Amino acid sequence: MTISEALGVQWAPRDIPVERRFQTLAATGWICLVLFGEAIAICLFLKLVYSDYWWLAIIYSIWFLNDIDVCNKGGRKYEWVRNWSWWRYYRDYFPIKLVKTTDLDCSCNYLFACFPHGVVSSGAFGAFATNALDFYKMFPGMTCNMITLSGHFLVPFFRDFILAMGGCASSRESLLYLLDKKRHRGKCVALIVGGAAEALDSHPGEYKVILKRRRGFVRIAMQSGAPLVPVFSFGEPDVFRPFNNPENSLLRRFQEAVRKFTGISPMFPIGRGVFQYNYGVLPIRAPITTVVGRPMEVVKNLEPTDEEIDAVHAEFTERLIELFESEKKKHLKNSENVQLVIT
Question: What single DSSP character describes residue 228?
Fold first, then answer.
């Protein structure tokens, strides 16, 4: 018995088509960006500071401080970055698909409430942070910004890449700015409602989302008057196999402590490797279908009461369940055994 057989390692065949090799390379670059991008960016900045080009670091720092609030003011998107071939290979690696259930009115702004977070939101990223899934063609006249943690925009160089992808901060100021009809029309703002906390419940075949204790996104929709759109990524939990972390386990308590301190959940993603299919941090080739549901009209209310927020929240919860139940048969195997758990 060989070492590979003893370890249960299944190696990738040598005759894989070049197209699939590029897809694997794209997925490798993406997961390295997600896991190590900030650390690499900080190291590059420090390297610049202690080099003969230290003066460039000073110029960048001055510009950075003057530009620090742009993530709350609509961001700074560059379409050529969103159009990179990298993202098309990334899309085809899983593959990821974007499905719409109805047209959107380009004279309105919409708040996309996206579920589930998964380990790293692979589907939502492909659909709303890149042009690889032809968002602009599917929703003519609309543009999209994806919302992420404000802390990411404090990391030199890394922040500029996120901004170029259309990323904006997950602050009240940022969301209201993007959804303001006096400033924008035809704006879709994609928010992963469950956030990092929801990532801790991501396990293959399970759909557990955090919604009951999430009220902020409803308040934002009411204050801006933007329709709420349920968005669900079927297959998102299947691209990684995280360690089992039941409630109150030692691992779960450690993860929760780190998340509360940093805002990021340490998930230790387990997927596959570049040259073998059993161990590594690359996502597994599992299809993801991101479905954009029917908009839910929200009456503008600058100072909604708790009761009014609860009423809108309850209606949105029903819309999300309806979307999940009506679409799961189309996009999941053994869908009759898959249930949506809302916490």
Answer: E
pLDDT at 1 over 60: no
299 contacts: CB under 8 Å, gap ≥ 6: 222, 225
> pLDDT digits over 110-162, tens only?
999 999 999 889 999 999 999 999 999 999 999 999 999 999 999 999 999 99
Q: Are 240 and 272 in contact (CB under 8 A)?
A: no
Handedness of CA 212, 214, 215, 217 (dihedral sign): negative
Q: Is the pLDDT of residue 6 over 70?
A: no
**For 336, phi and psi rounded to 5 degrees?**
-65, -20
Amino acid (1-letter code) at residue 234: F
334: number of Cβ within 10 Å: 8
Rounded distance between C-alpha atoms, residue 45 and residue 295, angstroms: 43
CA atoms within 13 A on the CB side of 159: 24
The pair of three-digit structure tokens given for residue 156, joined into one six-digit string: 């030199």
Tokens of 175: 């969301």
Q: How far is CA 51 from CA 29, 130, 137, in A?
A: 27, 34, 46
Q: Counting every residue, how long is the chain?
A: 343
What is the DSSP-derived secondary structure letter of residue 13? P
Q: Which long-range contacts (CB under 8 A, 24 or more apart) does 15-19 make?
A: 19/92
Which residue type sits at 141? G
- Asked whether 193 and 217 are in contact (CB, 8 A), the reply is yes
Is the pLDDT confidence value at 67 over 80?
yes
- Mean pLDDT within 32-54: 95
CB 72 within 8 A of CB 169: yes
